[in-house]
């Protein structure tokens, strides 16, 4: 009769019982490596989040600028052709709603479908 015992772990740090079997300098090296890996992962996540926020903010600035320019153009054209100005203003306002509101609605719908 034979008995086998298999033990495994995941992650950069072994269980404390196994870590205690390593020499002091090896334990320090393992812990330093794990700390550096964690710092790197946090830095990558922070960089990605900051980039996503900047991208969203830039899109909002550009969208807002386009919307304001569209309304100014509609106001200027209104003195010559009121119908054309109304169409431009309507399309501009519809575009603002589509740009700023629709993505939120779709995001909420996707979140509710996933849960």
Number of domains: 1
Low-pLDDT stretches are: none
- In total, the number of strands is 0
Helix content: over 70%
User: How many helix segments?
Assistant: 4
Proportion of strand residues: under 5%
Q: What radius of gyration results from the CA coordinates?
A: 29 Å
Quickly give the structural class. Answer: mainly alpha
Rounded to the nearest angstrom, the distance between the terminal CA atoms is 50 Å
SSE string? HHHH
Major sheet description: none
**Please, what is the average pLDDT?**
88
Shape: elongated
Explain what the structure shows.
It comes from Thiomicrospira aerophila AL3. Keywords: Membrane, Transmembrane, Transmembrane helix. With 115 residues, the protein is mostly helical. The protein has one domain (16-114). 79% of the residues lie in helices and 0% in strands. The protein is built from four helices and no strands. It has helices at residues 16-19, 24-78, 82-100, 102-114. Helix 2 (24-78) runs antiparallel to helix 3. It is elongated.
Q: SSE layout and pairings?
A:
Elements: H1 16-19, H2 24-78, H3 82-100, H4 102-114
Helix pairs in contact: 2-3
Could you give a short description of this structure?
By secondary structure, this protein is mainly alpha-helical. It has helices at residues 16-19, 24-78, 82-100, 102-114.
